[in-house]
Protein: DUF6598 domain-containing protein
Amino acid sequence: MRLSRPNELCYPKWTMCSRHRDCAMLQIFSLKLITANLPRPQPPAASGIEIYGFMAARDLLDPMRNYVFNQASPYRRPVLLEYDMRIKTGEGKQQDVPLIQGVAIFSNKISGRAFTTQITGGDHGAAAAVVEINHARFPRALEATVQVKIIELTKQQQDNNNGGLDLSITGFVPKIPEDIRLFRGVVDGPCELDRFVVAVASNSYLILRFETPCDVDGSKCVGRFAFRATPHGCITDRRKFDLATIEVKVTWSNLITYPDDML
Structure:
């Protein structure tokens, strides 16, 4: 929320500010591991594989690591994606097998739609594997910080056998087919969820979808919010759905202040 509040530099006015404008952003939707010829875990009876390491992004505005695994964040301008992921073999860290290692650069020259990028391992002793990254590059975008409060569960959700509300929250931007997976878990009562940060194309909307199973036949209870992207400010909306009463606050921010000669 770098520039969420209007200030004396806003021109001509904060609701139509041209000094604090949108900029290019990269939104990462998901990471998918596609495996082949991976080493078997030890001991042999163990099921599955353990993967550890990191994937993080750096850009010109924030040279520190922004961990893709820890948050769903937008990344601005040319982005350096750094990754070092390994497979745990159970024989000690020195024997763990590299999955993918290296860097990838994402430019803002190709933008406006969703892309899939594949990172391939297998060189220099690494396991033969592919990590697939779904992302979109927006030439003009704003940053949205989403805060969700569960105000009250319906009696039906309180009395179900799931221990609470089995909630899924996804975000959508019009014309982009990929969804932004913000939250999945069980909510057992009124609470405030973690904040989520997403990139939204300018002159567009952020649509939030709340979904939970509502019957044994597999039907879903669904609630939606829609927020129009703006350079500054925040908006709060509270709605009562069949699943719960939910309050959402979205704080909008831009990331760059343009000098007078660029207005």
About this structure: The longest strand covers residues 129-153. Confidence is low (pLDDT under 50) at residues 69-77, 259-263. Helices lie at 155-158. The first helix runs from residue 155 to 158.
